[in-house]
Amino acid sequence: MNPQPESHPSPIWSAQFGPTLVTAVQGDITDERVDAILNSANTWMILGGRHSVAGRIDYKTNGRVAEALSRIHTPVELGEVVITDGFGLPCKHIFHIATHGTQEEERSAGEDDLAIRMEAVNKGITRSVEKARELQLTSIAMPLFATGSLGYPARIMIDVILNTLDSELREDTGLREVRILTFRNERTHAELGLALQSRGAAAAGSSQFLRQLDAVGLASAAAAIGVVDSGTIGGLVGAVVGGLIHKWGAPDESKSATAAPSTPESVDRDTHLRQAIALLRAENLNLRERLRVLEEEKARQAQDISPAPSPQLPLPVAFAVSMAASETSPPLQVENLRRAFSILVKYLAVIGLSEYKGAGLSEKALNQEISKMLRKPLTDGSWLKLATSTARALGGANGPTLVREYPALLFHGDGRFSDANRMLYELLKHRNQVHDNNPFDESTATGWLESAAPLWQGILPRIAPVMQYGLVYVDDLIDFGLADPEAHQYHIRWLMGEHFVPRAEIVEWRAKLRKGRLFLKHPSEERFLPLHPFLLYEHCTLTRARETWCIDGVWEDAVSFSTFRFPYKWRDTACVGEFRNMFGPSN
User: Fold this and answer.
1) Beta-bridge partners for 17
2) Residue 438 located in a structural domain
3) Mean pLDDT over residues 124-144, rounded?
4) pLDDT at 267 over 70
5) pLDDT (tens digit, 9 = 90+) per residue, 182-241?
């Protein structure tokens, strides 16, 4: 008989993926009373890491799981699943997914290590769902893979896990509950919960409910978000929850989880009220996290990398700014700032290349230089050179068609480097001191940050005029029944800020925009700059979602693109002729 899933007291976040309820739970996965728990293991099936899930399994089973795994033929392939008994844990089975190598193998891995890990987690979850179906299991629990002792970015791994589950659970697998566990990290738990909430029916229900609460005064609550006093935050949430209860009445806590409410109206009232309160608690958690960050700011002022990202930043840059500020360990700060700088110079170069293309590609020598650079592996220095070369060309008669501020961002009117340009090249020098396979120790990283961090801080406000242009993806063209015969109706996605799911909108614009392309939009006018083919928004097999892709090289038979968020490449054969016609031969 399968063990019954343990009942957690009112999980804050949940969403329905087909017939399966997926919940975000904070706690120790080894305490979960489910049919099976998933464990992130190395390819040799050695249970290591004292504070990891594997380490807790080893400790709580007195080495019996390790003994069972020692009889397995190893190494197993990445993404494969090995099943053992629970050996006294509340679960019946443990699914060990090979998500990484040994510590020695990890240290020697190249820059594509994150992409390999994502692919292993993707494959491992798929295999686990298949195994659960074969064993007729109804409940499983999994950790937020690779974000603990392996230290990979939570935001990316959340996308991988949720998108894989979304794909695998659309049909009935027999699973009725999947729990995703975070351990002692409220910030990561909040990120997971809000990402889950944004995908499911629970999010739609609560947001619809909140929109109806005109008497509660949520506009006043939103205006008070800037207040950083913790007592005020608690009072604000209490007041809003009080308003909800005043409007709808308190939820009936005496009802059991399985008891049928007396009327459909009471179901709606209790469900909507619980969802709304859960959403407010999540906002409360986010506000308290913001307060904590502000309180720590003075203590780490010398090493502080950047402020919280503005929601108005284009998606790649918002991710870069957030990543640069996401760690407190100096060696990890160095690595994240290196990656953030790389994203920023690529995005600036994309704007420059797109504007130069829009201006008519007027300089033959520059066309040959660009063509030559694109046919070699592009470094951060190459990207910065592309940005400055195009900015210099656009400073003449054939200026930008949309981003008028671009030439002045990098050059003064007399041709001298701007402050932003000098800072970018100074930061490039610092970036070149960091080698991918030779990370800094604590002391060296601290010294590096003392000189590099102020440069990053100085660059961010200077690029603001260029970052005010909205990044828009045209999902579809819906041209019918419009009052204005010259207008076109589009279904678009705003790729702004760090939203898990980009905000969708239906708009009417007179400009003729091509479906499936990315554009920059003027902040107040209906003017656009096409970014194709330098920047794409296409599906990624690792995250099973759309990602922003930047051109990475032009070869004889294909054009290479890489994602902004992680090192993963994709080759496309359709764009080769377009690039060859655009810039001509390299010599």
Assistant:
1) 20
2) yes
3) 97
4) no
5) 987 777 888 888 788 777 533 344 334 333 333 333 333 333 323 333 344 444 444 444
The reply to whether 100 and 42 lie within a common domain is yes
Confidence of residue 250 (pLDDT cuts 50, 70, 90): very low
Q: How far is Cα 469 from Cα 472, in angstroms, rounded to an integer?
A: 9
- Residue 166: partners with Cβ closer than 8 Å, 6 or more residues away: 17, 199, 544
> In the chain, what is the greatest distance between 2 CA atoms, to the nearest angstrom?
80
- Chain mean position to CA 119: 16
For residue 487, give the 3-state DSSP assignment.
Answer: coil
User: What 3-state class would DSSP assign to 573?
Assistant: coil
Q: 453: which residues sit within 8 A by CB, 6+ positions away?
A: 302, 303, 304, 305, 333, 337
- For residue range 326-365, what is the model confidence (pLDDT) as tens digits? 777 888 889 889 999 999 999 999 999 999 999 998 888 9
- CA of 162: how far to CAs of 165, 169, 341, in Å? 5, 10, 28
Which H helix or E strand runs over 539? strand 535-540
Last-in-domain residue among 131, 166, 187 = 187
pTM: 0.73
Residue 269 CA to residue 266 CA, distance in Å, equals 5
CATH number at residue 160: 3.40.220.10
CA distance 545 to 566: 14
Domain final residue, candidates 401, 429, 464: 464
The residues, any chain, with a CB within 8 Å of residue 289's CB and separated by 6 or more, are 186, 187, 190
- Each residue's pLDDT tens digit, 26-81: 999 999 999 999 999 999 999 977 678 999 999 999 999 999 999 999 999 999 99
Question: Rounded CA gap, 410 and 522, in Å?
Answer: 20
Tell me the HSE value of 392 on the side-chain side, using a 13 A CA sphere.
13
> Side chain identity at 469, as an amino acid letter?
Y
SS3 track for 323-390: HHCCCCCHHHHHHHHHHHHHHHHHHHHHHHHHHHHHCCCCCHHHHHHHHHHHCCCCCHHHHHHHHHHH
- Chain mean position to CA 304: 22
Rounded CA-CA distance 292/456 in Å is 22
Same-domain status, 359 and 334: yes
Buried b or exposed e, range 452-482, using 16+ CB within 10 angstroms: bbbbbeebbebbeebbbbbbbbbbeeeeeee
Phi-psi region at 174: left, alpha or beta (left = phi > 0; alpha = psi -120 to 50): left
In a domain, 450, yes or no: yes
Token digits of residue 144: 């937020």
